[in-house]
Amino acid sequence: MITTAQDEINLYVFAVRAALGDLPESLRDELLEDLPEHLAEVLADGDGSLTERLGSPEAYAADLRTTAGFVGGFPDPPTRTDQFNEMRDLALARLRAVDLRLGPLFGATRASEFLVLLRPAWWVLRGYLVAMVLAWALDDSGQPIGLLPRIGGSEVVALVLLAAGVLGSIWFGRRSLPLSEWPQRALYAGSVVLVLVALAGFSQADSNRRDANYSDVNYDNPYGSIEDLFVYDEQGRLVPHARIFDQNGNPLRLGNASCYDEEGNYTDVETLTYPYCAARDPFRAPSSAPSASPSWANGPGPVPDSSAGVAPSAVPSVSPSAGSPAVSPSPQVKGR
Amino acid sequence: MHRVDTTQLLKGVLDLACLAALRDDDGYGYDILRRLRMAGLTEVGDASVYGTLRRLFNAGLLTTYVVPSDEGPHRKYYALNAAGRAELQRSGKVWHGFACTMDDLLRERETA
Question: Residue A289's domain spans which residues?
Fold first, then answer.
């Protein structure tokens, strides 16, 4: 709502300025600097709103544009599109030069001729990517898709979709009819999106693989902080040079295969048996402490009842310093 | 064919009209518009005059000075300088020649 004459003038000038939006800022400012005062004169002399008396701001701007001319000698600065086109032409020329120079490397006049040979490979990849994007969009099962276009975790669907995507993409690539301008642009834009999707997917798969080397994908791995492994026999004696395997016979690799001795010297452990550093035995009686413990009592103590389910590492606060089986948490002492 | 109407004709002579309006007296934009309309150029547009004055000023044919006004905002007055007067004379001659030619042409047709 227009409240005062000044508001009306400001609105009108604003609209005129907007209609001259394609002119350079400085020129527009220069052209419109006296307009508010001028419009105030118009408004003061007689009745009627500015629009009633002068026509629409757009028409006013058009009149101004034709009559003001730019005699003052302001050369029109290059417009944005001109600059863009210029940069594009320059980039294309550079690209052509590189294309020619790299040609011999591929046994062709131009490197791009070699790229043309790779086109069918792109069609296959494109088919796979389209299938993956489709699966990703359609799958709402919440299961991880993996590297195949699974929908609802189904391998069969994945293979069908993959085949359809690849065949469709090849068929589309081999079509003889050229596309008109806009579908062609849409195709390019789609290809760019697919390439971005592919890069994102690749980097994710890559980082998953790398993480798998360190630990399980599970980031709450309870064994993540393990540095070394100490194996004790039933009597609580440390088993030196132990080797540990899983149910498949694969050696378990835990901890860091390196050792700091008591002087802080670092050594790499090469034998890959546990413990890496026998000197760090957590149940060993401290060498400085006076202890009458017999050697067998250095360990966590005899095996507790299996129902107690206590791992050796959970015991140390109870047993080692006492050095006596009597204080073992286990009421039932085996093998003695 | 182009219909002859005042708006079309004005386009060609607006510069000259503005220069002529300033021949005897300096004036601010709206003042000059009023002079042109009083003189009979009723169809002259506000934006056209405003734009033309800016252009003539940029072309170096006019000088300007600002006069504070008692009631409204300050007024920017335009005045012919030497170049403006010379241009007024030259363009005026061209216009006279042109107008006479047209008059003669039209009179011949009428009498024929």
Answer: 226-336
> How close is the nearest chain B Cα to the Cα of A80, in Å?
26
Query: Residues of B with CB below 8 A from A69's CB?
Result: 51, 55
Mutate to test the interface with B, among A64, A65, A74 (most CBs of B within 10 A): A64
Nearest to A268 by CA among A280, A254, A258: A258
Task: Please give, rounded to a whole number of angstroms, the shortest distance from the CA of A174 to a CA of chain B.
Answer: 56
Measured in angstroms, the CA of A34 and the nearest CA of chain B are apart by: 8
pLDDT in tens, A54-76: 889 988 988 888 887 743 333 44
pLDDT tens for chain B, 112 residues long, are 667 777 788 888 899 999 999 999 999 999 999 999 999 998 888 999 999 998 899 888 999 998 887 776 788 899 999 999 999 999 999 999 999 999 999 887 666 5
Chain A residue at shortest CA distance from B74: A37
Whether B49 contacts B56, CB under 8 Å:
no
ipTM field: 0.81
pLDDT at A80: 60
Single out the residue of A17, A16, A29, A22 nearest to residue A55, CA to CA: A16
Contact criterion met (CB < 8 Å) for B55 and A64 = no
Q: Is the peptide bond before A275 cis (omega within 30 degrees of 0)?
A: yes
Domain count, chain A: 4
Query: Nearest to residue B44, comparing CAs of B13, B20, B22, B88?
Result: B13
Which of A207-221, A263-277, A316-330 has the highest average model confidence (pLDDT)? Answer: A263-277
Contact residues on chain B for A67, CB-CB shorter than 8 A: 14, 47-52, 55
Interface test with A, best of B46, B74, B78, B87 (most A CBs within 10 A): B46
> Under an 8 A CB cutoff, do B55 and A69 touch?
yes
Predicted pLDDT at A300: 66
Q: Say whether residue A75 is in contact with chain B using an 8 A CB cutoff.
A: no
CATH pick for B6-111 out of 1.10.10.10, 2.40.50.140, 3.60.15.10, 3.40.50.170:
1.10.10.10
Q: Which among A320, A58, A70 has a CA at the least distance from the CA of B59?
A: A70
Q: At residue B31, what are phi and psi to the nearest 5 degrees?
A: -60, -45
Q: What is the pLDDT of residues A23-63, one digit of tens each?
A: 888 888 888 888 888 888 888 887 888 888 888 998 898 88
Amino acid at A210: R
**Which of B11, B30, B48 lies closest to A38 in CB terms?**
B30
